[in-house]
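Quick check before the chapter quiz. The format below is the same one you will see on the exam, so make sure you can read both the input and the output lines.
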Amino acid sequence: MHLIIKILNAQPYQLTLQFNNGEVRVVNLEEKIKSKSTTPTGKYKMLLDKNYFTKVKVHKEWQTIYWDNGLDFCPDVLYQMSKLLIDY
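Here is the expected output.
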């Protein structure tokens, strides 16, 4: 299982993440967020706010990313969606 150790960079809809296997990968979540933002008050809709999106955090226990609105992503899904930037 791939787990997230650290967020190295958070830009609107794009995150640079360090995984537990030492890889640094970039994931673009724009399409996923937009496709799931179907309700005006939904959690995904909140992520369309660029300032809110960049307030992403690492959940130390689950070792994945999350936002204060309770939304999180499976680290394996993030790994599969991402592109390798650096392999240590």
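If your answer matched, good. The longest helix spans residues 30-36.
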